[in-house]
From TrEMBL:
SUPFAM superfamilies: Homeodomain-like. It is found in: Nucleus. The gene is RAX3. Keywords: DNA-binding, Nucleus, Repeat, Transcription, Transcription regulation. This is Transcription factor RAX3. GO terms for molecular function: DNA binding. InterPro entries: Homeodomain-like_sf, Myb_dom, SANT/Myb. It holds the Pfam family Myb_DNA-binding.
Length: 181
DNA sequence: AATACCAGCAACCGCGTAAGT
DNA sequence: TACTTACGCGGTTGCTGGTAT
């Protein structure tokens, strides 16, 4: 059975938004608002898009005062410390960073910040455990196809209930990152 | 110059839940 | 109270451009 689709998939365009679609959506919402119904909105303005897709486009790109890229050191620190305290609640984290969207922060975390934090953590571990092995076979196995580290070596402490070390590892890594040198 | 690989990011999917009936 | 519908969120996918071989 499964879940009923939110729209007619056959008559809905997918993939990247064209400038024309952006203009249509933006000018309509600026004039009339969303009308409290995202699903009806694309039909109203003649867009062959799913309501969800319109909502996402508006929230992440078309909305005024959206910032993209160029995360500051301060923003990095806020994201890291919030991630440690609440986990991957991206919308809550985004609410603390004006102009940033949850999607942007999520991408930034997954592609860069996680590695940055991990690199820092590794450096610190090597420093404290001088002479110990550096990268293990397991580290390599734990790397997914995109090269990001997965598995016990880097769980979110709030999604992993099995590894007691996760929480302390995160805290340790974060502290070493947030505290000024 | 061609190909393979990788990183970054935009967008989609599906679930949980709030709101409406 | 039970059911339906739409929204919001987080995880994941897949495209694109850059870099390495």
């Amino acid at each position: 059975m499964g879940r009923a689709p939110c729209c007619d998939k056959a008559n809905v365009k997918k993939g990247p938004w064209s400038p024309e679609e952006d203009t249509k959506l933006k000018s309509y919402i600026e004039q009339h608002g969303t009308g409290g119904n995202w699903i009806a909105l694309p039909q109203k303005i003649g867009l062959k898009r799913c309501g969800k897709s319109c909502r996402l486009r508006w929230l992440n790109y078309l909305r005024p005062n959206i910032k993209h890229g160029g995360f500051s050191e301060e923003e990095d620190n806020i994201i890291c410390s919030l991630y440690i305290s609440i986990g991957s609640r991206w919308s809550i984290i985004a609410a603390q960073l004006p102009g940033r969207t949850d999607n942007d922060i999520k991408n930034y975390w997954n592609t860069r910040l996680k590695k940055k934090l991990l690199g820092k953590q590794r450096k610190d571990q090597q420093h404290t455990r001088r002479g110990s092995k550096q990268i293990t076979k397991r580290d390599i196995i734990n790397q997914d196809s995109r090269g990001s580290l997965i598995g016990p070596s880097f769980h979110s402490p709030y999604t992993c209930h099995h590894h007691h070390l996760c929480r302390s590892q995160f805290k340790e890594a974060s502290l070493s990152m947030t505290t000024p040198r």
